[in-house]
Protein 1
Amino acid sequence: MAYFTAFILAIISGMLINNVLLSRFYGICSFVGVSNKLKNAFWMGVAVVVVIVLAALICYPLYMLLDAAGISFLRTVVFILVIASLVQFLSFVIKKYSPTLYKAFGIYLPLITTNCAVLGVVEENAASHAADFGAAMANALGTSLGYLVVIVLFSAVRARLETNNVPRAFKGLPIALIVAAIMAMAFTGMKGMA
Amino acid sequence: MEKKTRSVHAESFLAPIWKANPLFVLILGTCPALATTTSIEAALGMGLLFTFVLVCSNVLISALRKVIPDEVHVPAYIVIIATFVSVVEMFTKAYLPPLYSSLGVFISLLVVNCIVLGRAEAFANKNTVLDSLLDGLGNGIGYTIALLILGACREILGTGEITFGSKFAFIPLTHLPILKGEGFDFSMPIFTTPAGAFIVFGIVMAVIAAVNNHKADVEKEKARQERLAAAKAKNAAAASAGKEAK
């Protein structure tokens, strides 16, 4: 039971307190590029959740193997190949079994290979040698759910920003970054919860 | 002919430094730009590592551009880039441990940096080794300058001073106070937090947009004046021609 509580707490902390986009800065490119339509942002977020959890699941034993063999310096090459082939494999499977879902994921699935959030989580899990399998999975789940929450919230804010009157120089990206700063401050407030 | 080719080489080096700056104009590579710019030294370290990886991968990919089959070019590029990133990572870990611990996982994340992969895809696989080398250097320097601007704003505003020697051990540790001194301290610690990163980046982008808007306005106004003057001259000429005809 204590283990289960720790697992849930680790997920919440990864999701809200150390949010992947707003305090760890992984995946900002997709954050800036994709998130101006709520529906697109949601499907992108779901795709990221699936890929991060699967990648963490596969890379954990692989890293143990590399570490035992004493060639842990090869981890970056191995991880990125695993992620790239995982994304390729997933898009084949989804295309075969659910064309509707494939259409919903659209272009976002191949883009996830170069989303730093995936490689970032896997590298973090590898860097914390002491972490057990549960902690690694909690980190993956918490990070990816945090990504989903923030990208959906942010896309809703951005949709309203577009119809609002902002100073000419701030139109587009600059005002979006300022909004992100205010969101980051709000998420800093959650530190009191831990 | 000779002169023309030389200017093309110069262009592939000079354009990315300011006109097509990878961070400020193309808005690529934003993750390290926000995460590693808490201080000037960290920004400089990230910029140098980035430049090394980009130059090496550009040169190798350009040299192998006729060997790599088109169907598997992306995985091949990623493996080449990942190799150089591992080299850089081991080098930093061994010789600059403070820099390694402050950049952390962002060194490994150079593998998925949009600029590195983007230059490989858009430039190195179509151009000669020399041009790719120059393009890599230009992009690297342009990105480093952009990181330094963000890093300088955040460090000066956030801590009130510039610190040398905390990341590069061979420089003696010195503090250069700017916003604080005897009895006063105007530093705002929020600029060293993640929220400060977004604010500084947003304001820098807005300043660049304002300058570009102003330039466009001035040019538009100039074109309008010229058009007016031309129309006036034409009218005057027509009027005088009409008078003579009478």
Protein 2
Amino acid sequence: MSGPVVAALAARTCLAYARRMPFEHTAITDTEAAAVVALLGEQGFVAFSVVAALADAECRAELVGLPELVVG
Amino acid sequence: MSTTPRVSSAIPGEPPHFGSVLAHQPAIAERFFALYGAFWGSDVLSARVKEVARMRNARVTECGFCRQVRFDKAVAEGLGEDVVDDITDGYETSARLSDTEKAALRFTDALIHDPDLLTGDARAALARHLTPEQIAELGLGVTLFLALAKALITMGLEPQAMDRTVLPTPVPLDRAA
């Protein structure tokens, strides 16, 4: 497989994992997580998991209108 | 939900837990613990209200580790298990939770579950019971609680079994031993 194809498959695997974070975080399987570890390594998996969880939380803070609640 | 760690400890001799796994990314770990310590070290919002929100997040996100931990500062401010037991669906009728805590819980539910829960009366109650500075601190806290719980779960760091554990409340780095 060529580089762009591999990159596209890697992106698809990581996006599938991140897409589960907002509503299905408890349903992520060991196999799905292992696929991300295989692509990114343990360091990358930790960073990706943290940023996906934080991005979900930040979006939710925006949806609830946190900035407007504070600034008025 | 997996209770098998999906990533190894980066600290030799320690089992995989949030701190030892986050050590794979030292810069992220340093900034997270600095922010978390500063959050708990601030008294703009009481530790008891923060802990009430953290307990609600733990239940909704199904974070077993979060559910079993209590921070000692909130316990010292009167957060007993009788109060924690009321942080379930139907908390609005609790006689043990204050109106401020109920307003904080509605905000927590809105942030972690459904933003439409914070409209009308719920939004007015939040503004009535908390200052903008306190809402900002609560918002930061719930955001961190939610992200921490989901990171723990997705990295397979949930315990198979865990007793209720009172831990020292995180402190700002300049106050850490």
